[in-house]
Amino acid sequence: MLIEILIRYYMTRESFGSGGRCPRCGKGPMVTDNTTGEMFCGGCGFVLTERVEESGPEWRSFSKEEHEDRSRTGTPTSLAMHDMGLATIIGPADKDASGKPLSASMKSTIERLRTWDSRSQVHEPVDRNFRQAFSELDRLKDKLALSDAVIEKTAYIYRKALDKGLVRGRSIPGLVAAALYAACRDTETPRTLTDVANGINIKRKDVARCYRLLLRELDLKMPVVDPIKCVARIASKAGLSEKTKRKALQILKDAAEIEISAGKDPMGLAAAALYLSCVMNGENKTQKDVAQAAGVTEVTIRNRYKGLKESLKL
């Protein structure tokens, strides 16, 4: 069998090297049928190969997104999928192995098999839990504009929580939100607890309770949030100029050097630095404008503003 394949390969190569003529009659051009994969002579009908190796993209799709953007391979493995992307499914194309369309009776049979195949993917309670949790996570990703790295970290934390039995008796959305906030803190993505709670439509105190549980039970060590990373977001929401933003960054760097930023809310400190920068540059923005953009109170901005002004002697 191997020798026969090699002979056909060399015959094909020689025939194309000599202008793509038939090796049998030497006259007819070689024609390739893209549907069946056969290569045959257009003159005498001699079949040179019954199947041609596909060199282009593998036009199969495993989800709605892939159906619109097909690629050579299937879905990549991901912790944010209930089966990690390792399960096999029956494809949506109604064609057999040789590319021929299926008959009407076989189509209905395959459709029924496809339905049962998708149902049998989630038969364990753990799989159902993951599917519900990660569908919530997928919605949060779009709402909060999060990166794939944050989503993968969230899925990892949630899987650890499920292994430890922390989900039993608690709301799945609450633990997903807590895992997401922990992932944001770990990857230094500027998202507050209020942002996450509003995104998933749960009370802030419930998300905070689940977050403390994760920290305690999973022994997570969270880095301190850098207020400098919050400046761009607040400035963008408040519509501040680039000059004001740069001055606020310099104020925060000076504050970090003399260690007056320790123990302060990063969002409040960043908002106060931006307001101080507005005052110094003569930009017409009130405390209320900056406070609403940062999600803090005007009292917080006033207190942080006084502290920064006195400490940096501005």
UniProtKB/TrEMBL annotation:
Region annotated Disordered, chain positions: 57-78
A UniProt-annotated Pfam family: TFIIB
Entry keywords, A to Z: Initiation factor, Metal-binding, Protein biosynthesis, Repeat, Transcription, Transcription regulation, Zinc, Zinc-finger
Extent of the Sequence repeats: 135-218, 229-310
One biological process term in Gene Ontology: transcription preinitiation complex assembly
Keyword Zinc-finger: yes
GO cellular component, one term: transcription preinitiation complex
Composition bias, Basic and acidic residues: 61-72
Annotated ranges, domain TFIIB-type: 18-49
Binding site for Zn(2+): C22, C25, C41, C44
Alphabetized InterPro entries for the sequence: Cyclin-like_dom, Cyclin-like_sf, TFIIB, TFIIB_arc, TFIIB_CS, TFIIB_cyclin, Znf_TFIIB
One function term, GO molecular function aspect: translation initiation factor activity
Family per record: Belongs to the TFIIB family.
HAMAP family found in the cross-reference section: TF2B_arch
Function of the molecule: Stabilizes TBP binding to an archaeal box-A promoter. Also responsible for recruiting RNA polymerase II to the pre-initiation complex (DNA-TBP-TFIIB).
Name recorded for this polypeptide: Transcription initiation factor IIB
Naturally occurring in which organism (per UniProt): Nitrosotalea sinensis
The organism's taxonomic lineage, starting at the top: Archaea, Nitrososphaerota, Nitrososphaeria, Nitrosotaleales, Nitrosotaleaceae
